[in-house]
Design brief:
The protein is mostly helical and about 180 residues long. The chain folds into 2 domains: about 5-95, RNA polymerase sigma factor, region 2, helix turn helix motif (Rna Polymerase Sigma Factor, Chain: A); about 120-185, Orthogonal Bundle (Arc Repressor Mutant, subunit A). About 70% of the residues lie in helices and about 0% in strands. It has 9 helices and no strands. Helix 3 crosses helix 4 (about 50-65), helix 3 packs across helix 5 and helix 8 packs across helix 9. About 30% of the residues are buried.
């Protein structure tokens, strides 16, 4: 299989190759999803070395457990890989005790900040600089589209702690965006 053909593989064909233990299929899976999964892990873990370690371990687990994956249509492989990386990221945060409950609700920002004039890379850096608990809840709520009840259950915190950390993250981002726009507008 040459690289031009590999890039044209459907997700279903890629799943078949990897399921068969085909090394070229495994390489294609890595090449196709490593960048995306690095970005996912980077939303949760601020340390670049921790992200690299996590991604390496995640791919080892993916290939070891690929037999348990069930293809459910286009996008199901990406969703499965994403879930593994998110869960592994949360495991790292729990293990290092960076997820601490916050019980008091902060004041909500007056309005949602206008992010249209903030470059994506700058916005990603702002999110990455959030304290671990804030960043984790923010990412689960915004990117994984989980409800606070689900987040609380997943992280072992109270539902109002999830809501509190989300509001604190949102308030901190609003301040940073406002400051960025003031300095760069």
């Amino acid at each position: 299989m040459d690289s031009r053909l590999a890039n044209n593989l459907s997700e279903r064909e890629l799943v078949r190759l990897v399921s068969d233990g085909d090394a070229r299929g495994q390489r294609e899976l890595y090449d196709r999803y490593a960048g995306y999964l690095t970005a996912v892990a980077s939303r949760y873990l601020a340390d670049a070395d921790a992200v690299k370690d996590l991604l390496q371990d995640a791919f080892v687990r993916v290939f070891e457990r690929f037999g348990s994956f069930r293809y459910r249509g286009e996008g199901s492989l990406k969703a499965w890989l994403t879930r593994i990386v998110v869960n592994d990221s949360l495991h790292v945060l729990r293990k290092t005790q960076h997820l601490l409950p916050v019980e008091t609700l902060p004041d909500a920002p007056d309005e949602d900040p206008d992010v249209d004039q903030v470059p994506l890379g700058v916005l990603q850096d702002m999110i990455r600089r959030l304290p671990d608990g804030y960043r984790t809840v923010f990412n689960l709520y915004v990117f994984e589209q989980m409800k606070h009840k689900e987040i609380a259950s997943l992280l072992g915190i109270k539902e109002n702690s999830s809501a509190s950390q989300f509001l604190r993250a949102k308030a901190q981002l609003a301040r940073e965006i406002k400051e960025y726009r003031k300095n760069n507008g």
